[in-house]
Amino acid sequence: MTGWTVRTSGAELPVFEYGNPAARSTVLLVHGYPDNHHVFDPLIAELGNTVRVIAYDTRGSGASVLEPAADVAIEQLARDAFAVVESIPGLTGKVHVFAHDWGSVQMWEAMALPRATTAFASYTSVSGPSLDHLRQVARTRLVRPRRWPSLIGQLARSWYVFGFHVPVLGARVPGLLARLGAEGEPTPTVADQQRGIALYRANVLRRVLRGPAPRCAVPTTVVAPVRDRMLSPNLTDGLDRWIPDLRVVHVDAGHWWPYTHPADAARVLMTRVKATE
Question: pTM of the prediction?
Answer without folding.
Answer: 0.86
